[in-house]
């Protein structure tokens, strides 16, 4: 590896600490303009200029968390609940590497994070300097963008560029394909100003262009044709706007299409849930039913569903994907159409399509089978000893309308998928399903509660497995932030270990 060149030392006439502070203030100007209001930081000296700059901004809530891994999952929870960019800050060296599991989850699940890694000066990289590594490509392909703007400069053009970088990072992280953006920030010592240091005023503030947050739309005149034969709508995990549930219900009714709703679609919990099918995992265990209910094509919203049985059953069926970010969620490689528009817009467009007379018996058969499956599940639980099914059913009945639940991966989310059924009372369900890891659950839960407390007071419960609890013991340090109980299923590591 070729070493970076050695740069000349700065003139002693320059207050390096003040220069660092103004540089960071300009960056925060842009991040705030892009909607960032929360900074989660872990202790470290090299990141001091960013901390001081943030302390001077009333718009930023600063949350210190000792452990970088826990801090990253906490930030993930805040960003997931608020749907706004959240900044993470750590010192140089191995510290930001502890973010990696949460960064992967944020990338795969589409959660907006701004990764601010403080760094030593470039002249020290690859020279054996203490606590100095190459941080510029630390997160590889799991970030939407990565930038290393170099050492702070004091000219007006450089400060303007830093404001623009903050605006760009925050905007790219938020839309149209949300995810992490990494900014590596090197600083020279001394890190603190020698005296009173006022923010620079040479560059004007930058308003957020609305076009940066615009969702890609279907090109004018692009076709949206449904194939012939019996169709099926599958709604997997995803973030859908408030109008989607009602629009989907109208569309499905008009076209006579059954709607299979994954628990992480949000469609199982609310007033429109009476028209969705939740017991498909049990239905498809019956080979005769699975064959009789097999469609000719599938219209898909969101990512791949939790149910492995459903995914296997759908394998080989031509699918149509609606994804506003232009993604390719197609693990079975059955995609025949992809439409880059919002799910609500897609449903409204489909309602306007002229079609042959609809035979609603296909949809009615699915709904009737789902009702029979739910009745048999209730009968089974009534005569069975206490098990995970009872826990899920009791929890679904106990959580008040409008509150939220975080469900851990592995067995808990599968048990919830099987036993939750539907309910007309609203419930927001969270799960770190991007990469389906079991780590960081308590820290994510603390972040969800933190965001809920500041955005309408939406408390979040938790359903965890014993192993996922043990994987985030440092998250117990954040337990004071929890507002609702944490239910832990002691199932000996999900019977996997």
Tell me what the structure shows:
- This protein has helices spanning 16-33, 48-55, 68-82, 100-109, 156-174, 244-255, 280-283, 287-292, 308-314, 343-351, 361-382, 388-398, 411-419, 441-454, 466-470, and strands at residues 38-41, 61-64, 86-90, 113-119, 145-147, 180-186, 231-235, 259-261, 297-301, 319-322, 335-339, 404-407, 428-430, 460-465, 486-489.
- With 497 residues, it is an alpha/beta fold.
- It is elongated and about 80 Å long.
- The two termini are 42 Å apart.
Give short descriptive properties of this protein.
497 residues, alpha/beta, 6-stranded parallel sheet, 5-stranded parallel sheet, elongated, disordered N terminus
Structural class call reads alpha/beta
| Sequence of secondary-structure elements | HEHEHEHEEHEEHEHHEHEEHHHEHEHEHE
Give the distance, in angstroms, between the N- and C-terminal Cα atoms.
42 Å
Oligomer: single chain
- State the low-pLDDT regions, or none: 1-12, 202-221
Total count of helical runs of at least 4 residues: 15
User: What profile does the largest beta sheet have?
Assistant: 6 strands, parallel
Number of strands: 15
Show the helix and strand layout.
Layout: H1 16-33, E1 38-41, H2 48-55, E2 61-64, H3 68-82, E3 86-90, H4 100-109, E4 113-119, E5 145-147, H5 156-174, E6 180-186, E7 231-235, H6 244-255, E8 259-261, H7 280-283, H8 287-292, E9 297-301, H9 308-314, E10 319-322, E11 335-339, H10 343-351, H11 361-382, H12 388-398, E12 404-407, H13 411-419, E13 428-430, H14 441-454, E14 460-465, H15 466-470, E15 486-489
Parallel strand pairs: 1-2, 1-3, 3-4, 4-6, 5-6, 7-8, 7-9, 9-10, 10-11, 12-13, 12-14, 14-15
Helix pairs in contact: 1-2, 1-5, 3-4, 3-14, 6-10, 12-13
């Amino acid at each position: 590896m070729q070493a970076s060149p050695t740069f000349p030392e700065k003139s002693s006439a320059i207050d390096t600490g003040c220069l660092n502070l103004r540089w960071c203030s300009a960056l925060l100007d842009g991040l705030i303009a892009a909607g960032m209001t929360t900074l989660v930081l872990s202790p470290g000296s090299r990141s001091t200029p960013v901390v001081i700059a943030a302390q001077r901004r009333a718009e930023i809530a600063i949350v210190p968390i000792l452990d970088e891994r826990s801090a990253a999952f906490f930030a993930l929870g805040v960003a997931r609940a608020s749907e706004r960019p959240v900044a993470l800050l750590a010192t140089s060296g191995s510290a930001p590497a502890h973010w990696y599991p949460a960064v992967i989850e944020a990338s795969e699940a589409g959660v907006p994070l701004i990764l601010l890694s403080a760094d030593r000066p470039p002249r020290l990289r690859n020279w054996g300097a203490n606590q100095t590594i190459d941080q510029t490509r630390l997160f590889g392909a799991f970030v939407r963008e990565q930038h290393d703007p170099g050492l702070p400069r004091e000219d007006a053009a450089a400060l303007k560029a830093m404001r623009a970088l903050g605006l760009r990072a925050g905007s790219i992280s938020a839309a149209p394909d949300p995810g992490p953006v990494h900014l590596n920030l090197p600083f020279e010592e001394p890190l603190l100003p020698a005296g009173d240091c006022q923010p620079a005023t040479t560059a004007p503030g930058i308003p957020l262009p609305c076009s940066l947050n615009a969702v890609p739309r279907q090109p004018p005149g692009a076709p949206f044709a449904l194939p012939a034969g019996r169709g099926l709508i599958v709604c997997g995990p995803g973030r859908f706007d408030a109008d989607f549930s009602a629009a989907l219900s109208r569309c499905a009714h008009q076209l006579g299409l059954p709607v299979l709703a994954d628990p992480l679609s949000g469609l199982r919990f609310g007033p429109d849930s009476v028209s969705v099918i939740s017991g498909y995992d049990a239905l498809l265990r019956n080979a005769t039913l699975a064959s009789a209910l097999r469609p000719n094509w599938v219209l898909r919203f969101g990512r791949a569903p939790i149910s492995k049985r459903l995914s296997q059953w759908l394998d080989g069926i031509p699918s149509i994907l609606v994804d506003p970010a232009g993604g390719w969620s197609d693990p079975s490689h059955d995609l025949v159409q992809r439409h880059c528009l919002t799910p609500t817009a897609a449903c409204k467009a489909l309602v306007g399509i002229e079609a042959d007379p609809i035979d609603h018996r296909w949809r009615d058969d699915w709904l009737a089978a789902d009702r029979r499956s739910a009745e048999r599940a209730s009968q089974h639980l009534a005569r069975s000893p206490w098990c995970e099914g009872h826990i899920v059913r009791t929890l679904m009945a106990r959580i008040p309308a409008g509150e939220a639940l975080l469900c851990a991966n592995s067995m808990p989310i599968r048990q919830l998928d099987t036993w939750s059924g539907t309910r007309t009372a609203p419930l927001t369900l969270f799960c770190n399903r991007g990469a389906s890891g079991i780590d960081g659950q308590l820290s994510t839960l603390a972040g969800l509660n933190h965001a809920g407390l500041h955005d309408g007071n939406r408390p979040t419960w938790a359903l965890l497995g014993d192993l996922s609890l043990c994987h985030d013991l440092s998250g117990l340090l954040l337990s004071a932030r929890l507002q609702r109980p944490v239910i832990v299923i002691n199932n000996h590591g999900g019977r996997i270990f």
